[in-house]
Amino acid sequence: MTPTLDNAKAIAYKKALSECIDAEKLKFCFECGICTACCPMAELLGEGYNPRNLLERIFINMEEALASEELWLCAWCYRCYRHCPQALKLPEIFLHIRRLAVKHGYKQPFENAVKKIVTAVPLSLVAIIACFHPERARLDLNKILDYAEQLRKEFLNERPWKTEPIKGKVAVIGSGPSGLTVAYELALKGCEVTVFEALEEPGGMLRKCLPVHRLPREFLDKDLQVLDALGVKIKTGVTVGKNIDFDSLWNEGFKAIFIGVGAHKGQELKIEGENLEGVFHALDFLWTVNSGREIDLKGKKVAVVGGGNVAVDSARTAIKLGADEATIFYRRSREEMPANPWEVKEAEDEGVKVELLVSPKRILGRNGWVSAVEFVRMRLDDLDETGRRRPIPIDGSEFVKESDLVVLAIGEAPDLQFLPKEIELKEDGTIWVNPLTMETTLKGVFAGGDTVTGPATIIEAIHSGKIAATSIECYLKASGGK
Amino acid sequence: MAKEDIRIGVYVCHCGLNIAGSVDCEEVAKFAAKLPNVVLARDYRYTCSDQGQELIKKDIKEFRLNRVVVASCTPRLHEPTFRRVCEEAGLNKYLFEMANIREQCSWVHLNDRKAATEKAKDLVKMAVAKAALLEPAEEIEVPIIRKALVIGGGVAGIQAALDLADTGYKVYLVEKEPSIGGMMARIDKTFPTMDCSICILAPKMSDVGRHPNIELLTNSEVVDVKGYIGNFRVKVLKKPRYVKEDCSACGECSKVCPMIAPNEFDAGLALRHAVYTPFAQAVPSTYIIDMNLCLNKDGIMVCEKCIKACERQAIDFTMKPETIELEVGTIIVATGADVFDPSTLPQYGYGRYLNVITSLEFERLINAGGPSGGRLIRPSDLKIPKRVAFIQCVGSRSSKTGRTYCSNVCCMNTIKDSLLIKEHWPETEIYVFYVDIRAYGKGFEDLYKRAKNEGVKFIRGLPAEIFEDRKTRNLWLIGENTLLKEPYKMSFDLVVLSVGLEPRKDAELIQRLLTLSRTQDGFFMEAHPKLRPVDAATGGIFFAGCAEAPKDIKDSVTQASAAAARAGILMAKGKVTVEAITPILDLEKCKACGLCVKVCPYNAITLNKELKRVEIVEAACGGCGTCAAECPSDALTQNHFTDEQIIAQIDAVTGQDADKKIVAFCCNWCAYAGADFAGVSRMQYPHNVRIIRTMCSGRVAPKFVERAFARGAAAVLVAGCHPGDCHYINANYHTQRRVERLWKKMEQNGLNKERLQLLWVSAAEGERFASKIYEMQRIVESVTPDEIERAKKVFAKAGGA
Questions:
Q1: Which of A36, A97, B466, B730 has a 20 to 30 Å separation from B545 between CA atoms?
Q2: Which pTM was predicted?
Q3: Which of A24, A26, A34, A427 to mutate to test the interface with B (most CBs of B within 10 A)?
Q4: Domains of chain B (ranges plus CATH)?
């Protein structure tokens, strides 16, 4: 039964609700269930997390919502927002209520949430830092990470080390979040897993491109240590398709293969001046920064072209390296930016500028180095097949922006030349998989993460890895490890 | 001319507690009694009641009142009521004025009785000041042409045309497709009776074709409308069919035509030839040639197959488009609605996955006269599906698609569709994924129960995404069953998207032609949602069918008959009186500069160069007052909204505490109605705004704004219809011009131009109006006394009169 609240609390709750639900435009939830259906955390936790239900409880009984651990389980992937018919920004609504909970002293629910995260989400420390963001609700991140580590130790100690070990070796190509998840889940069940990683250090995008301020590498290493302790073999410096053939994996005795190579091929803009010095593809730029090279951008103007998370990361990195100006140039409007809206906000708070409805026409240079970019203003036409409005250049609206460094972040695609022909790809170049089993069109070969979805978030990669791991387990059991 | 003694009677209405709950009516009445020219002031509980009306009539006779002011609800509601009361007591109806102390006072200032009462006093003061200057006026009568135009030949247009024609009026029915019938001709069965749609429609279509009073103009479009109620001059473009009426519809020409294209009637699922008839029961049955497809499209006779095949020699490639001019007294808009295109929802895969179809495509597939002969087949392999899913609310009830309304018919349509499938293939598994099932009408709930009884499963929870199985082309629906709180991942052979209705793509065109308003949803706006549901705000124009809002066939037919009846009232009367708010011309001051001619949206003013003056055609005048605001020589003013009357209102507002007030000029049709809507919705906003009503924002002359500032007003708001939605076609364009010039003047004189605000707000945007007042309140609070004085000096010469 709803207890009667004192007046001050009731007013505070009402104010919080009206601030985060777009009450003026009557964007109210009509309980269609779409958010829960597409939420990776809902699937990872099953009955333990239902965002639709949580939102309903916030409306009906705020105290119950504040005391619920579910409030802390949203991993900020914004899939709900992109699918919601009312375009409700659930992560931001939950953040509002989280802050209210912290203000009113509800700490225990969060601790319960950490327990759930540690048991259900592989790569827990990485996930807490880069997906759950407890610091946004003004909690102490370091304390939480210590607590999580401790809980994980307990969890791994308590459970039976190996139940009935699954027969059959599994090869995982790519040590990004999806590959590592598959390895972790299968290793927990006693399966022999070998991960093949092309770079010298494991982690995929987590190691290569995620800015250090978004994920301090020590926690990635801590999560990797867990895999090591479970017996997962990670072979770095091995590129499948170059150092070793895809087909030869079968000969080496692997019974199932998981492809988690991510999407690392930066799209090209195909405009004049793209090959000038000082023009980088975003992934190369981020990798260079993360590989320890000292880069000083003091006094420089940086132009970042694109509107996704990679663009935002690049711009924020540029500011941290001392750039005078870092501007994101995106060809559509703010609502259509694929980047995490909260991170765009954080970027702007850090000094990143965002220019909308502009597209680069050509890159100008002096003596082989980039000096400026010529942009043309865009207007939005009717909706195209992706459901977004098509940008059309406005003739005669060209303008020139001085730039010392240009970073192109207009999309990434997976590099899948090494795959056998039997593995069918979708029109956009990503691997087609059965959505329930994550199996490709080649028997025994599974795939997940950015390789299947195109560039997406860490939690989505972890989620697809978990589904694939369950599938692989069933597959191995059914085939008897042959 | 000796001015008679002005004797004003003031009635302050309690309206039960609607006004008295937040305004001290007794105090206001006492205040009114002391105003100049007021001989009687009363407060009364329900002034619009019979007793209230009788009291006013009694007072007019007993106290020899020659002006009456009622302070109560919005004039948009009861001005006609009280005007009638005055007339019945022998007083000219134009000697009556209202003060809006309900929608624009008591309802929006519920929590500050003192402030609300002070505002009510001000509003009464304004009304009394204007009343003292009112003059009696006679309305001119304009004859009504006893012919009607119906735009749109769907079931609503057909019904309206038949009703009017049966009453005895001549009706022109204009339809842009080659045949009448609209949406209803394409449906298989109708809910809830499961009647065959075309079977019940075809006889009506036939009646239209044969009716002596109906002139059917198909393949035609309305391209221009001029005039006013009772006297519309309409230009209709008859596009050529290239087939004469001699056509016997034998179909031999189609058989030999080499060109094919998707058939629009079958939602693109079947093919037709360049020479074709849209469907078997088409009225008129004459065939038509699609010149964009025909090989002879460049004017050179390349192919003569159809000419040779036609026994009646009915093919005629020399036909040209023809423009016809019609004169009608009333117009009924029955242009229908379009269907939402789900290809903009990428997660459902429409257009990429073969076996995801819309409800309209389903309708054509299951129709025995359709492309598959009534067999519901999967597009990918032409097999009958064993598992079918219906997804509801596609495109409707969603902020994301911009269509936040419910499309009314989709729930029942799906229920009907599921029963149709069960009728033919009872073993089919059918799932309906919904958020709410709306089965509100007569017989609807029974049909819903029947569907459940037949084993149709209703799952509450829309799919988030649809995936396709590449081999089988089956579809996986991923969603949450919200009632069981369980996720579902189900496979289906065929998915039907229950798409909603949306306004026609050319709704804007019709809107401009007829000066109609549209609501937020984009459908046409009725004059009053409860009391005048088929009238357009523009006189003489009525709505029928989905043009006004999504609805089913029964409601469309009902509304069509209603519209016909309303149009019939006008035409039966044979004449209409034009409101006496036409311009008054002072010949001596007129310098024949012609500026008023340029701004009149109705071309109701002409320049007579020889006589060096302008001439006004009163019958054509729309009553906007833009001419009066434009005249630089003060030669034009508007009856019942004269310069003196408006300035008297401004002076009344700014008599006291002007530096705390906002003087707002609101146009009758949009801004004033929007403020009323804020009141009806009880939206609260700051109390220091005083609204002066004009018919159009185009009436607001720069000198009015200047007068307000010269008298020390803190801020001025000029509010009108959105550009393109102006009730007087485009008069608000001139408002924009004038305000921009005033801004420039303010800037040049070092004044804060934020003190003058321009707001476009529609009748449905009460919240927008309220927000603006909040915004302006902040400006009022920040204006310094110094600024006020400076503005007074700058505009000191303003106003005159």
A1: B730
A2: 0.84
A3: A34
A4: 1-137 (3.40.50), 141-239+321-336+504-573 (3.50.50.60), 240-320 (no CATH), 343-502 (3.50.50.60), 580-616 (no CATH), 641-801 (3.40.50)
